[in-house]
Every structure is written in C-alpha cells, then in structure tokens.
Amino acid sequence: MSSMANTQFTAAGKRVVALICAMAMAMAGIVAMIGLQASPARGEPVAPPEPVSATGSLTGVVVGADGPIDEDSLIEVKAFTSDGDFGSGYVRNIGAKAGTFSIEGPAGVSVTRVTFQDDNMYYLGHEATLAQPLSIKAGEDTNLEKTTLQPAGWLIGEVHGPDGAAINDDARISIAAYDGDGSRVASGMVETFGEFDNHYVIRGIPSPTTISRLVFYVDSGPYRGITVDLEPQPEVVGGSHVTGPAVIFEPAGWLVGKVTGPDGADLDPNSSIRVNAYNDDDEDDEWVGRGHVETEGDQKGTFRIGGLPDDTKITRLQVSDSNGRYKEATVEVALTVSAGEGVAVEKTIELAKAGGLSGKVTGPDGAELDPNSDIEIYAYN
Hints:
single chain, mainly beta, 9-stranded mixed β-sheet, 1 helix, 25 strands, 43% strand
C-alpha cells in the first residue's frame, strides 16, 4: 500500500510540475507580446537606455535690398558654431514661405556665424558674425534676425565665331573680368544654349564696379583666346544688366594625343597629368599651350591642347603628373598646327610608374597627430 501511495504521489507531482511549466511559458508569451522585459538576474549588468538624439533648428528670413528675393536665386545658408559646422540649407524662393530658411542641427550648441551664398549670383555673398551667439534648444526654432542681401550686377554681350558664325555648341570658354585697378572682380562663361545662347554672361559683380578688361580663355573649341580692353569702361551697379561690346573669336588649331601607363596600361584614375607644349626653335624657348589628360570615361588617356594660333610650331611635349604616380616624360616632336585644324601626335606617350616611400608619423608616445598640424616630409640622397 505504501508503494502504491508513493506511485500516486509521484504521478500527481509530475502533473503539478507540468502545470507550472505550462503557466510559465504562457506568462513568457504574454510578456513578449506586451513588450515587457524580465528583470536581469542578480549580478547581471543592466544595459543603459538608448540615447535620444536631440535636435533644434535655426530659422530666418532673407530679403533683397530692393524687396523680396528673386525667384531665380539659389541661396545656400551655412551655420557654424565655435567648434565647426552646425548645418546648411537653402532659402525657399517660391510659394508662401519664399524668403525663409530652416536648418536642423544638434541641440545644446550656439551658432556664432552664418554665411549666405547665391549659387546663381543674383546676390552678393554675405557673412554674419553674431555678437550674441544663438543657443539652439531641443525641439525648438531659434530665429536669426532678418538678413538683407545686396543685389549683384551682370555684364552681358554677344559672341561670334569667324565671319559672324555661331559659337560651336561644344565649345567651353571662360571669362575673367577686371576693374580699373587691374583686380579680378568676377568670372563668367560663354553660353552656347538656352536664354543667353551665343552671349557671354558675367554674374556676381559687386556694386558699383567699373569694368576695364575682359579676358576670354578657350578651354575647348576651335578658337583663340582673346583679351578685350573696354573703352568706354562700363559701370555695373547692383541689380542691373549692363551690355558689353560684342566679341569675335578668331579660328585656332589644336593638338590631340594619347597617354598610357607602362605597356599600354590604363592610367591610374588618381593621377593628375598635364601635357605642356613648347617650341624650342624659338629663341625664348616659347611655351605654346597646355592640356589635361583624361583618366576616366570614354576619353580616358587622351589630351587636347586648344587655342593655338595659325602656323604654330611644336618641337617638345613635357608630360608630368602632379600627384606623383608617374615619372615625368619628355617627347620630341616636329609638328605644325594651322588655324581651324587639329593635329594628332602619332605616337602614344607611355609613362613609367614612379616609386614612392611611405611610413607613419605619430605624436609623443604614439599619440594621434593634431588635426590642425601641417607636416611636410623631405627625402634626401
């Protein structure tokens, strides 16, 4: 009988244990569904709560000196703290909120400086250093007092190719404008499509400025560069478009060629290779022109030296990599370039790889270098 009782008790105990386990599993499921976390066991480390990233915003209003900002402007606003960047954004130029901006950044810092730059150059750049820094609070807008930008002036004029022809669509011609003191005051481009097709356009000229000289650089295209001294000298004032004289470009020749690495290998895309052309027959060892070697894309390995006057003689090409990936090379040639025509260097220029020396520099006791340091290393034989 004692044996039978023990057997019945053991069976009952097993049922109780099974019931307890089932209840524990059910409770664990409920905890999982409602997102509760079980308490850690004694001595088990407790993970700290996830930090909450707090941000605030710098807001403001921008106007032009003559009224609301131009809808064609594209004004970038950058804000800075004493330790670095706070953030950046653009001024809205259309709609009910035109003229306003909002820049989100970290809370708990103070903005000490704000800059304004119109990418489309309808307005002059402006920098505001705040006598009283603006404290950025979490979840709040901190307002900068209204900013007034001064309108910039423009100089626009017609351009023509030889015999009054239109400028080639693929031509790239840049311009530098100089005032009466010979100081460079603005730059621009020759437009070959759009609203200002076949015009030069120089934006962002301070007001008032008297323009005395324009220098046209032909980066690509069958034209010669030209310097134009203006007489009379136009005065450009803010918000105005002043018409300059028409400019006619004379035809020019160009030189093309190809450069590779050792054994015809593609050039290192991190190289920066230029080709300078000279005429050694000239008593002054005349420099003729310069071109940049493409290291990526469909034109990889090619160079072009444009803007060459009629009957330009070239006797030597000097090829160098400013990034030091390749050794400098000199190539003797005997070429004559005529206006309006291109001449190709028959032989591909092959560059040899340059050697290098690398190492590591630290501060005292292996410490990281100060990021504001500027350390140069010289090697001697």
